[in-house]
Fold this sequence. Notes:
Chain A is mainly α.
Amino acid sequence: MNPIERDELSAYLDGELAAQRRQEIQGALANSAALREELQRLTSADSQWRAAARSAVFEPQVRLRTQTSVGFSLGRALLCVLLLLAIRALPKLANTVALALGLNALALALALTAVSYWILSRPPRYGCNTAGTVTEPSSF
Amino acid sequence: MRVERQYALLIEPLLAQAAAYARSILRDRQNAQDAVQEAAMRGLERFGTFDSSRPFKGWWFAIVRNCCIDILRQASAAKTRDLDEQVLAHPPSPDTADWETLAAAMDSLADHHREILRLRYFADLNYRELSEALAIPQGTVMSRLHLARKSLQARMGGSEETE
């Protein structure tokens, strides 16, 4: 067995050694009081530092927005405007009252569809709630 | 949009640790919040270049670290409030005394020891992630972390100085 290097004790404590080397160090620990004492010191300090570091934790609020999202929003808004213009244009093509009413209804339905689509499919925005987790994309 | 969602899911479990890590560097909760927000955005911009065979956590915490350094530099350049003034403006409260004591002890160490200890304890990075964040081999992580621990023990009233 290779001699135990002191930095391997740290790696042993951190669970970062390969299984075979871990077993070798366990064997060395069983036979060496000095090694056990050193590991004990490392373990004790490690526990204290971990506990201290945990007291720094807080839940940040994070929001993610991209330029791509803005582009998509503008595209949808443009589509909406074009369909709204259709409300005014379509009835003028009709030469009978019934056809004009039908085209008006069609134009209105198109416009409502466009507005609904725009509202319901705006790009997702990720953010953190007060618990600090990134929220699922939400629709507006 | 799938990329954004994928990225959001990856950083979500890391946010609290990132906040603690940034706080250990900046010593200020609001600045730490700003650093994490900036890191989240910067990471998203660079997510396309991320190599998925490497540990994401190490990659992202390197960005968090750079954002903290940028904030420190900005504060220094502005000369309106340096780090000492910041610390004085936010004296330790009972619930933060533990981490501030630890962070102060780490501050007294050599740069490379301080960095690895912050990432290990405040960010909870494993050896592979430390290797990625610090751009050093895993063998170096092991030896550096051990020496850093011994130095910190000495600073905090433990055993002999080994640095």
